From TrEMBL:
InterPro entries: UstE-like. Signal peptide: none annotated. It comes from Streptomyces lunalinharesii. Gene3D superfamilies: 1.20.120.1630. This is Steroid 5-alpha reductase C-terminal domain-containing protein. Transmembrane segments: none annotated.
Length: 90
């Protein structure tokens, strides 16, 4: 997958989950008591998505596939960012 979101990030679904959790936290911030309790959830999920069972495990599983090293070199690991290569995206 190198078109659409996959040309900007290797893990668009994990990034989407990350945004959902932080969005729920932002909604809880209307009340400081709820925000104090709710802040643990997005932090734990961010850790799991990026360094725990999400991105890290998937990349370890796919690292041996042909062409993955080149894809990894030209595509952001988590945050959607433009490719460092010159020219338009696919």
């Amino acid at each position: 997958m190198e078109r659409g979101l996959w040309s900007w990030t290797r893990h668009p679904t994990y990034f989407g989950d990350f945004l959902v959790w932080w969005g729920l936290f932002a909604q809880a911030c209307r009340d400081w008591r709820a925000a104090a309790v709710a802040c643990a959830s997005p932090m734990v999920m961010s850790y799991l998505l990026i360094g725990g069972s999400g991105k890290r495990l998937l990349e370890n599983h796919t690292a041996h596939r042909p062409g993955y090293a080149a894809y990894r070199a030209r595509t952001s690991g988590f945050l959607p960012l433009p490719s460092p290569r010159k020219g338009p995206h696919r």
